[in-house]
Amino acid sequence: MGGSALESMCAGVAILAMPLMAEQHLNARMVVEEVGMGLRLWPRNMAPRGIVEAEEVAKMVVELMEGEGGKRARKRVKEVSECAYGAMKEGGSSSRTLDLLIDHVCGEGANKVFK
């Protein structure tokens, strides 16, 4: 996932995805379909260049903020956020992995120098 998606995940904010180019399509799929922490805007009636009408944006914002789909996404992003913070805190999986990387690059026990 890209930076914005990770920032939203860590902040516990659900995403309304509207991919336009490059990796945004993959990120939108991951956020919406795989992780379940957002909703996706789709162009209607095969609109040129993927244009989404203002009414559709407004409808999806209301769905994200008040609807059942948004409720599920907000619940899921809260769960994911809590897991992310658990991984980042001392002794969490990210902390342990960083320790292993430092040991691998600098030699066994080197990570103790940085603590």
TrEMBL record:
Keywords: Glycosyltransferase, Transferase. It holds the Pfam family UDPGT. It is an enzyme of class 2 (transferase). GO terms for molecular function: flavonol 3-O-glucosyltransferase activity. InterPro entries: UDP_glucos_trans. Its EC number is 2.4.1.91. This is Flavonol 3-O-glucosyltransferase. It comes from Helianthus annuus.
